[in-house]
Amino acid sequence: MTVAVPGMDLASLVADATAAGLTVATAESLTAGLLAATLVEVPGASGMLNGGVIAYQNEVKVRALGVSAELLAERGAVDAQVACAMALGACHVVGARVGLSTTGVAGPEPHQGKAVGHVFIGVAIDGEVQAYEYHFGGDRTMIRQQAVDEALALLQQVVAAAREQKL
């Protein structure tokens, strides 16, 4: 069963990423593996997805992804800098050019002073990284799905830029 992402052809995204020579890693807290699972629903995803880390707890962010414990203590897990560190850490751990990270609050209660629906997605490519901030609505399932959809949309932008550079 392929998960439908509104307005996106996941098979084309996977094929385009593979053709562009992009390898992808995920570092998922908020989405707990849903992003990687969505990508692997597409036959041929092994051509671009190297792997991922589910780092739901901060200790895993530190040990597996190399996120600074001091950063987590100072800023909390729901933070742009943390999302960036997670994306870079994922690239390093699995040897990928592109890293996607998700961190945020799915609810039902606020967490560490952050409102339900407050999400950061980190995108790293070839050592450069940027984080994007979102405020999603809905229940836990809806917030997590919106984060996956946005992460895939960001990946689509990275893939399009990589394909343009190859031309």
UniProtKB/TrEMBL annotation:
<feature type="domain" description="CinA C-terminal">
    <location>
        <begin position="13"/>
        <end position="158"/>
    </location>
</feature>
<dbReference type="InterPro" id="IPR008136">
    <property type="entry name" value="CinA_C"/>
</dbReference>
<dbReference type="Pfam" id="PF02464">
    <property type="entry name" value="CinA"/>
</dbReference>
<dbReference type="InterPro" id="IPR036653">
    <property type="entry name" value="CinA-like_C"/>
</dbReference>
<protein>
    <submittedName>
        <fullName>Damage-inducible protein CinA</fullName>
    </submittedName>
</protein>
